[in-house]
Amino acid sequence: MEGTDPVNKKLAAALSGGAVLVLALSGCSSSDDDGNKELDAWAKKVCDALPAQDAKVDAANDAIKQAATDNNAPANVQKTDSQAFQDMSDAYKALAQAVQKAGTPPGVEDGKKKQQGAVTALNDLSASYADLKTQVDALDTKDQAKFADGLQDIATDLGELSQSGNTALKNLEQGDVKSAMAQQASCKKVAASASARATTG
């Protein structure tokens, strides 16, 4: 359906910031660790949860982009986007649970407050993606013009979500926490894949 294709591409473009949370988390080089084993252990708990959720968000982004380039019928786009937003919602919820389960980062000033702020931000992102799923599910696929308008609204919301994702964990991942996370193999892996995505598109 050619009428929806340009809007689909806008939706895909809004996703170019894809796994912005992960980029914020681990897109950093590390300095020499100061040997805080407790903080390292905390960072490992959080970082080890990242690769699977990063992959889930990345796959969801790819699915939406693929639907946009395939010139799909509205019903197919709706189905694809709905599942993608559900997957994103699940991924951010899982990350919120991982940060919650990790507990307060040891030896960090206002650690409890920063941890809870990150959990709240991640849960808010999860809820926002769930809301986008609801919006997509409610679109009228039989009216191409209305469907295109609806997708445009969702693309706008999605762009705003990508921006908020950038700040979701900034208060938490500072100073020693940032250094400890950057030391973890799982965070390094996610940072490398994020850099590769940024380079390719």
Task: Please give a structural write-up.
There is one protein chain. The relative contact order is 0.22. This protein has nine helices and no strands. The radius of gyration is 18 Å and the shape is elongated. Helix 1 packs parallel to helix 7, helix 3 runs antiparallel to helix 5 and helix 5 packs antiparallel against helix 6. By secondary structure, it is mostly helical.
Radius of gyration: 18 Å
State the share of residues found in helices, binned by percent: over 70%
Can you give the mean pLDDT?
81
Strand tally, please? Answer: 0
Q: Biggest β-sheet: count, sense, barrel?
A: none
Q: Spans with pLDDT under 50 lasting ≥5 residues?
A: 26-33
- Beta strand %: under 5%
- The termini sit apart by 25 Å
Note the overall shape: elongated
Strand and helix order: HHHHHHHHH
User: Which secondary-structure class do the elements indicate?
Assistant: mainly alpha
- The number of distinct helices, counting runs of at least 4 residues, comes to 9
